[in-house]
Design goal:
The structure is a homodimer of 215-residue chains. Chain A has helices spanning 2-37, 40-71, 75-108, 116-141, 148-170, 178-210. Chain A has 215 residues and is mainly α. The first copy, chain A, has a single domain, classed as Methane Monooxygenase Hydroxylase, Chain G, domain 1. The interface between A and B is medium-sized, with 24 and 24 residues.
């Protein structure tokens, strides 16, 4: 009976992680559109959803601590719960990073935060970050889904685009003002960190399935 | 007897956190000097110590999970261990952020990553971040030390300097090239995030002492 209660509690933790990850996909989608299309309404939406998601992550942490206290799990069960705390922290950071991207768009509105020469790069970064966040939703719902390789490939492409932004900004042809330089530097960094967190979460989930860290 | 073993284990967790935090102060000290004085030897020192500190944080997490499994702590004891996991994650990030500052210095060497007009600002940011990290060492060694207010004041000053860097870079008088703009934008962000983590850790420790979140 206690085991059944515990399984039920683990299921709730999982469902809440899926919910928070789904929020994160929405924040990134709004933030990326806000940033690449100077849409201030979407920016505001991303910023408030990021706050809400931070609160949900805190509430989930409290639930996990209550379960740890009541059930005193060991071995794999314990690792699942500790991993849930870490994944919740990563998801909270991903929401905050996407929120930062939206804030840049909001700050420059009605102007654009990206010069034309980098627009398609940031559109692609946003698409990749969104695809990566969607894979985390799937992976949290079913840890056996085989997405590890595509996550790695997409993260590498994000890193490549991040370097491309830097090469562009630091190249001889870059004639944009410092406002653009600052905005694209930070936005690129936020996109890249967002993808890093996806890789971290995927490594933690793979550890739970295989028992071996492979990061 | 079990209680004595547990107290001994908690003591080891605390000592390891103090050790990792002490590493972080060294990384920030080397990184800040490397960055403001273009010292590549100090930059290398900061970068390798940051890697080592990441490994120590991982090892500490494993120790905490073993204690959770063996002792099944509840109430305050459980919260101390969960907080230790979070503090270890924050310290690891602080080491990584300071490492990133050192990497900027290394990348620009033998040139400087900061234009003269911002040197004193970054010297002050480095001094503040180092002071903040030192307070975390003290707080981890003795959670009753009364440093919460000075941590808040110093974090606010770091935020002020961070805004000053942005105002300078985005002002009409800024004539530096994009390399400087990118370097100081990222370095300022890393200093600011470093201080944020100190505030987070101090809030978690204050929660352990008072039982109330005050962040």
């Amino acid at each position: 009976m206690a085991r059944e209660v515990f399984q039920q509690e683990l299921k709730e933790v999982q469902e809440r992680l899926v919910e928070i990850a789904t929020d994160v996909t929405r924040i990134m989608q709004s933030a990326s559109h806000a940033f690449t299309k100077s849409d201030v309404a979407l920016a505001d939406q991303a910023i408030s959803l990021a706050e809400l998601t931070g609160d949900k992550a805190l509430a989930l942490d409290e639930l996990v601590i209550r379960i740890l206290a009541r059930q005193s799990p060991v071995a794999r069960d314990l690792r699942i719960l500790v991993s849930a705390l870490r994944i919740s922290a990563s998801l909270e950071r991903m929401g905050a990073l996407a929120g930062h991207i939206a804030q840049i768009a909001r700050f420059r509105y009605p102007g654009s935060a990206i010069p034309e020469s980098l627009r398609s790069t940031f559109v692609e970064m946003g698409v990749l970050d969104l695809a990566l966040a969607n894979k985390i939703v799937k992976l949290l719902a079913d840890p056996d889904v085989d997405v590890a390789r595509s996550i790695q490939a997409e993260d590498e492409r994000v890193d490549e685009l991040h370097r491309h932004v830097f090469d562009t900004v630091l190249g001889d042809d870059w004639k944009e003002n410092a406002v653009f330089t600052v905005d694209v530097t930070l936005a690129s960094r936020y996109h890249e960190r967002f993808a890093d967190h996806v890789v971290d979460i995927s490594a933690k989930l793979s550890y739970l399935t295989t028992g071996e860290w492979n990061d």
